[in-house]
Specification:
Structural class: alpha+beta
Order of helices and strands: EHEEH
Distance between the termini: 12 Å
Bound molecules: zinc ion
Helix content: 10-25%
Number of strands: 3
Largest sheet: 3 strands, mixed
Strand order of the largest sheet: 1-2-3
Length: about 60
């Protein structure tokens, strides 16, 4: 299962839409899925991406299986 993150109210819309790295905000052509993010107080899930700058919780476990 993809890790579910909970974000605060202030989050870049570009990150929410998977156009920028969720962790550092950079934009590259090598983005990897980083799970989904749920905004605090909502149930909407947003698929986000990572450039690989930060280890993604749960990702290694999925690959190991
Ligand atoms: Zn990054």
């Amino acid at each position: 299962m993809a890790p579910e993150l909970v974000a605060g109210q202030q989050v870049s819309i570009a990150r929410l839409h998977g156009r920028a790295c969720w962790y550092c905000g950079t934009v590259t052509t090598k983005m990897k899925p980083a799970g989904t993010v749920t905004l605090a107080g909502t149930t909407q899930e947003w698929p986000v991406v990572s450039c690989g700058c930060s280890p993604i919780p749960g990702q290694r476990q999925e690959e190991a299986r």
